[in-house]
TrEMBL record, chains A, B:
PANTHER family: DELTA-1-PYRROLINE-5-CARBOXYLATE SYNTHASE (PTHR11063:SF8), GLUTAMATE SEMIALDEHYDE DEHYDROGENASE (PTHR11063). Belongs to the gamma-glutamyl phosphate reductase family. Its EC number is 1.2.1.41. GO terms for molecular function: glutamate-5-semialdehyde dehydrogenase activity. It comes from the Eukaryota. It comes from Allomyces macrogynus (strain ATCC 38327). This is glutamate-5-semialdehyde dehydrogenase.
Length: 480, 480
């Protein structure tokens, strides 16, 4: 790619023969753009976002036409059975009489309103008189986002990348191609309108592009795959670049011996049925043996799940209890309650099905979760604060919940204002990832010519290591 | 590995045939131990450290004998040329009349005195009345540390892992084997003495072990290689587990047009010569063309470096300037100043050699650093605050320094009290990594039975998203 910055992205997005695109050059351009973004002021970054909203509004019809073209093609694919109805729906950018479109534009405004995640002083130490250390947040650099179907992701992710001072390379699905290009053109126009590099947001197409970019660990700092578990696993296996995300979302709800069974039923139903295809939906229900013995399971919790249309895959004890109750026995007869196989406890059903098992106590529940869970979100229902604390502290997951539905695990519900994904990683960002997950930090040392030798010499200078209070005035020196 | 927790590590450390060790089982045991460490109170973790110091002191002679055996063997290897004198020196645990040993024991005490990196509330939000969100730091889980030569690393890393509530698998060099085992035995005894699992610190041997463990991404959360650039690169290429560390340390010092040349000379000399083998030593000197023209380079900076015994590999402009000055011309004649090759600017010399290049301004300096640097530590010498700010904000590195030696990039000098390594990663921990790099966080949600459906319904409940002040009282609920 020997063309200029603006040209390179165009080459990438319009190339028909993948061999024509030099992905190393493309990634290098993104790196250069990322370094320029690193120095952009908050005012400039917000101006780019405001321009983005305006550009999108002005070009609404053009984008709608591109989307209509994708939808027309997709409609024939649905008819021939090569595309699902749900994928088709997600393609529609102007759905609900433009409500989706307006929500998208408002979303860009919301990002303008979020605080700057960069240039925040998170540590300040006086190493010695006239020798100060500051840890200051800064953009990570270059993000590679791989997503499927929903074209509005281009706008949402671009907004988050611009706000956080990162460059981003976006790879979307082929079926949304025309819509993605139309949206991307406006993102680049908005960047150019405030003199930010167009290559700060690059759109690529084609499956070949993915592997070529996964090899660019010199220029790309993090990969965020948003899609199926198999996509995420494939990407983790194929790159040295850190991957932020989650393959599985195998969440559990544990109902303790000391619990309000009505609350337990409510939480189990919401966790399972509110949106079964979500990664934060519950897939496993762990019931304390006392709740089975007391009848809470057979008389309250199971009937609530069955009424909500849930199929129960039960271990022996929880199944046996349901035989003793007429209503639930009928559910066994009609096949809405079936015996669980061992594999059911490792399955992300993503549908109105849940695996159910009896456990002796909170420790057994955690042992089950640690053996079968994915470290996403785990809930306990209990009225005993000590048992809750054992669970909240001991369970190894991004979310540990006490008396609340697992479905709360979401960047918007957490108040982050935006979400770039959900991570089950043990490093960097864990759980719902907002703008804070897109920054790292650098250490600034400010001296007056000091050398290490002066401090190492016998009788030499001594380090003070006094904390510097990060007052508004101190912070202000970095925020601009 | 079907033996108990204590037995499993012993099996690993005493196995002579690598095939006898089941590394999956070993990693799984470490994971289980890590989960137990996760719930250990600060008091218990500190008690383990205090016990460790006592056990080491009590078993000093036994450890010294093991070390003497390693040294005797190493001495013959030095004689035959198969081991370097510097590696030999680093093997000596009781060097300087036990001063090294006593410093090691004091180091364990220092870790007891450090604040708990876990159970810190870093975000608290009232999602709604009776529905609260807390982000609380917690151990990462299982660390794999691969190191060379220095046996005291076993004690230092064990102390940091115990303090931060992590389990750790340690792989040291063969030449220190007896010493490592003797130290490790005391670490495990200390853990057992406070009822923490012995498998929280596992010692392994043999090269085969490394690859077998790099495959255990289900059980190991982060790998920290401490060793040569080739070791680090090999590990990054061989695992899906996140790697925390740095391959290269190619640091630069840029001397701006507006700078005090005496200060510049002082910083250049310290950055290069204070400890040339360190990763934070400068390898490249970038000199503003005005400093070359003014004579500051030929008359002050270059002579200072030459007097300190540094060999200068110069580009044309900086070399030409040295011909105009008698003293420096003599250095050219005796070969202490030589022309630079392009490769010199990509070389980590790790010796008293530095590559020198002229640049037009701070932007050219940053462009050079971004093309050739390793993102470790970069310094600017300037009296112009605006130029400094351009550099500090724009340079993409873990450390950005103004008028200070690159050699300050170190966990102890930063006041972290301890250092597990230095990272040039762009995610998780960057720069010198202390205890904070060994923790991640989890989100705790505490409710009263709330469901997401209540908030999604038209006219339903609204999220408040009010910040909760993290007072001492709030923090105290989590610190125990």
């Amino acid at each position: 790619m020997s063309t200029n910055a603006a040209g390179s992205a165009t080459t990438a997005t319009t190339a028909t023969a993948p061999a024509a695109v030099d992905y190393t050059a493309l990634a290098r351009s993104a790196r250069a753009a990322g370094r320029a973004m690193q120095t952009a002021s908050l005012a400039t970054r917000n101006a780019a976002l405001t321009a983005l909203k305006q550009h999108l509004a002005t070009h609404r019809d053009e984008i709608a036409r591109a989307n209509a073209a994708n939808l027309a093609e997709a409609r024939t694919m649905v008819a021939s059975g090569s595309l699902s109805e749900s994928t088709f729906k997600r393609l529609d950018l102007m759905g609900d009489k433009d409500a989706k479109w307006h929500a998208l534009l408002e979303g860009v405004d919301d990002v303008v309103g979020l605080p700057d995640p960069t240039n925040k002083v998170t540590l300040a130490t006086k190493l010695d008189d006239g020798l100060e250390l500051y840890r200051v947040t800064c953009p990570i650099g270059v993000l590679l986002i791989i997503f499927e179907a929903r074209p509005e992701v281009v706008v949402q992710i671009s907004a988050l990348a611009i706000k956080s001072g990162n460059a981003v390379i976006l790879k979307g699905g082929k079926e949304a191609s025309a819509t993605l290009r139309a949206l991307h053109a406006q993102v680049q126009a908005a960047l150019a309108s405030v003199n930010l590099p167009r290559d700060a947001v690059t759109l690529i197409e084609g499956r070949d592009a993915v592997q070529a970019l996964l090899d660019q660990d010199k220029y790309i700092d993090v990969v965020i795959p948003r899609g199926s578990a198999s996509l995420v696993r494939h990407i983790k296996d194929s790159t040295r670049i850190p991957v932020l995300g989650h393959a599985d979302g195998l969440c559990s709800v544990y109902i303790d011996a000391e619990s309000d069974v009505d609350m337990a039923a409510r939480i189990a139903v919401d966790s399972k049925t509110n949106y079964p295809a979500a990664c934060n939906a519950a897939e496993t229900l762990l019931v304390n043996e006392k709740v089975v013995k007391s009848g809470g399971w057979a008389k309250v919790i199971a009937p609530a799940l069955l009424s909500a249309g849930v199929t129960l895959k039960c271990d022996e004890a929880t199944l046996a209890a349901l035989r003793t109750n007429d209503a639930t026995a009928a559910a066994i007869t009609r096949g809405q309650v079936v015996p669980a196989t061992p594999a059911d406890f490792d399955t992300e059903f993503l549908s109105l099905t849940i695996a159910v098992r009896v456990v002796t106590d909170v420790h057994a529940a955690m042992a089950h979760i640690h053996e079968h869970g994915s470290g996403h979100t785990e809930a306990i229902v209990t009225s005993n604060a000590e048992t809750a604390e054992t669970f909240l502290r001991g369970v190894d997951a991004a979310g540990a919940y006490w008396n609340a539905s697992t479905r709360f695990a979401d960047g918007f519900r957490y108040g982050f204002g935006a979400e770039i994904g959900v991570s089950t990683n043990k490093t960097h960002a864990r759980g719902p990832v907002g703008l804070e997950g897109l920054v790292i930090y650098k250490y600034r040392v400010v001296g007056k010519g000091q050398t290490v030798a002066e401090y190492a010499a016998p009788g030499g200078r001594k380090y003070l290591h006094e904390p510097i209070a990060v007052t508004e005035a101190v912070q202000k020196r970095f925020s601009h």
